[in-house]
Design brief:
The relative contact order is 0.18. The protein is α/β, with parallel strands linked by helices. The chain is elongated, with a radius of gyration of 16 Å.
């Protein structure tokens, strides 16, 4: 298996809902493992919270996430953005519509100075998404 780089997002108790939402956007196979399944004795009320999740899509995307472990402080911030890019305009516009639907658009999905169609939004879980639709090479 080759090395890969993918986003890993921490949530404050709603990782399951977020990852199920992302599966509804991108499709694919979602694996969810809870703290309780891994025998985390200190989990207590967090036994049903997500210790690790991974979404792998037919398009080759991989997104990982977890709820903040018991005893650790959740520190939200704007230090993560997830970029989705490619040439399939219909597919990417579909992702955009779902991600931005209940979120906030900061850059509308439109042609930019570099020639591609680009937009930026923050979804209903507070995650920033960058969608870039490239023109097909001549």
């Amino acid at each position: 298996m080759p090395s890969r780089l993918n986003p890993y997002i921490s949530f404050d108790g709603d990782a399951r809902q977020a990852m199920e939402f992302y599966r509804s956007v991108f499709g694919g196979n979602l694996t969810l493992n809870t703290f309780g399944e891994f025998g985390e004795e200190k989990a207590g009320d967090a036994a049903d919270k997500i210790m690790h999740s991974m979404l792998e899509t037919d398009s080759g995307f991989t997104l990982m996430a977890a709820d903040t472990p018991p005893g650790m402080e959740y520190k939200p911030g704007n230090n993560i953005a997830v970029s989705v890019s490619g040439e399939n305009a219909d597919e990417l516009r579909g992702y955009w519509d779902k991600l931005s639907g209940n979120g906030t658009v900061s850059v509308p999905l439109e042609r930019q100075m570099w020639g591609d169609v680009f937009g930026m939004c923050t979804d209903s879980f507070g995650i920033t998404w960058l969608v870039n639709i490239s023109d097909k090479p001549a």
